[in-house]
Write a structure and sequence with these properties.
Elements: H1 11-40, H2 45-72, H3 75-95, H4 99-127, H5 133-159, H6 165-188, H7 190-201, H8 205-209, H9 214-219, H10 223-251, H11 255-274, H12 276-283, H13 285-302, H14 309-336, H15 343-372, H16 375-396
Length: 404
């Protein structure tokens, strides 16, 4: 059993939260701008969908090795490597002059994003007490949502500063890169403190010897249910980021307003994540997961029908609240379903499932949008969420409850 962390060790959580806030702010600034840059370079709905795939394809292959690395060594190393890749990816986006270069830069950016997520989640899984996992993962995802809330309107502001969009998109990439440089500085000192604390509080060699492989982890009760819920919810967020600018272009909605709409979704997610502890006590993890997936699916399916901007904002706010619930609960669900020595690997499998979902689902949806238009993306992902919600109670039932 791990010891509770004292005040001297508790600073690691603040650094992790600040790192996640800065990186998510930068990524959610960069990715809507990436869509506009792609449109300027001649991309259509299908190419926009394939850029979503590029952001997830390579990370899906490296997630499990990164998780194993975080279990064997210090998760902070994985966080720092991710920060370096994010800085490089933002620079490559600034330099890209065609869709191929844009796609390659997106792969680097996505690899850095997944490394940072694996490392940050593994730090919390290793250092937080079991009774505080839902709370700390809620804070982690709330910090992410704050960054996601600030990033899109900042992107809209930068894009609206000049009539020449090639200039404004380049400027936005540079601002995102500067934020990522700050994030790199924040996490650079994480290694020593987190490493010493992890060594002092980690399980002994017995747990390490008994660590199951990837297939063994997937067979454990609750793991598959958490992964299915997680990947569908995350894909919904990605498609919102990628296709809401396209819908905005079609309806004559300015980039600034689109950025504000995306920030409404993120703000609602922050609120729901801060309210996770009382909601868990009232309804339990399984019911909250079910409500998150089913409710989000219905609302996203209705999104293309929302003509007035105020109705679009309302639907995005409610969908954002429900979207915010699922991710932290699937993290703690997966972590508590596996031995302590495999927590980083289990979280990386969850992230790999997320990324595979981000590859397979948007690839199919990109084909559909090429035929039926961007609105079909929301209808299709909404239907997938509704279908996945049917399996949540049965698959996650063994690990439901308050999570405390």
């Amino acid at each position: 059993m791990r010891r509770r962390l004292g005040p001297a060790a508790s600073g690691w959580l603040g650094r992790v939260l600040l790192y996640v806030l800065l990186t998510q702010l930068a990524i959610f600034l960069i990715r809507p701008v990436l869509t506009y840059r792609a449109l300027d370079l001649g991309a259509g709905d299908r190419e926009v969908g394939l850029l979503v795939v590029a952001f997830a394809l390579v990370p899906a292959a490296i997630a499990i090795p990164l998780g194993r690395l975080s279990d064997r060594r210090r998760p902070a190393i994985v966080v720092q490597g991710g920060a370096v890749l994010l800085v490089v990816g933002s620079l490559l986006l600034y330099l890209a002059s065609n869709l191929t270069g844009l796609a390659l830069a997106t792969v680097v950016l996505g690899s850095g994003a997944v490394a940072g997520l694996v490392g940050a989640q593994a730090v919390i899984a290793r250092l937080a007490p079991d009774a505080g996992l839902d709370r700390d993962f809620g804070l982690l995802t709330a910090a992410a949502s704050v960054g996601q809330m600030i990033g899109p309107p900042l992107a809209g502001l930068l894009l609206s500063a000049d009539a020449d969009r090639s200039t404004t998109t380049g400027r936005a990439f540079l601002v995102g890169g500067a934020l990522l440089c700050v994030a790199l500085l924040v996490c650079w000192r994480l290694g020593d403190g987190a490493g010493r604390t992890a060594a002092a509080t980690a399980p002994d060699g017995k747990a390490t010897a008994a660590a199951p492989g990837a297939l063994g982890i997937l067979r454990l009760p609750g793991v598959r249910g958490g992964i299915v819920a997680s990947l569908t919810l995350l894909t919904a967020v990605d498609l919102l980021i990628a296709y809401l600018p396209v819908i905005g272009e079609e309806r004559g909605i300015s980039p600034g307003v689109v950025g504000l709409l995306l920030s409404v979704r993120a703000a609602a997610s922050v609120l729901s994540r801060l309210l996770i502890p009382p909601m868990l006590r009232r309804w339990g993890r399984t019911r909250l997961l079910w409500a998150s997936t089913l409710g989000t699916g219905v609302l996203l399916g209705l999104l293309p029908l929302a003509a007035p901007i105020w109705l679009l904002a309302l639907l995005l706010a409610v969908a954002g609240f429900l979207l915010g619930i699922g991710q932290p609960l699937t993290m703690s669900l997966v972590v508590q379903a596996v031995p302590a020595a495999s927590r980083g690997a289990a979280l990386s499998i969850r992230i790999m499932g997320n990324r595979l979902g981000q590859v397979v689902l948007p690839a199919g949806i990109a084909v559909a949008t090429g035929v039926f238009g961007a609105a079909s993306a929301f209808v299709l992902v909404g239907g997938l969420l509704v279908m996945s919600a049917v399996g949540v109670p049965r698959q996650a039932g063994g690990t439901g409850g308050t999570g405390g």
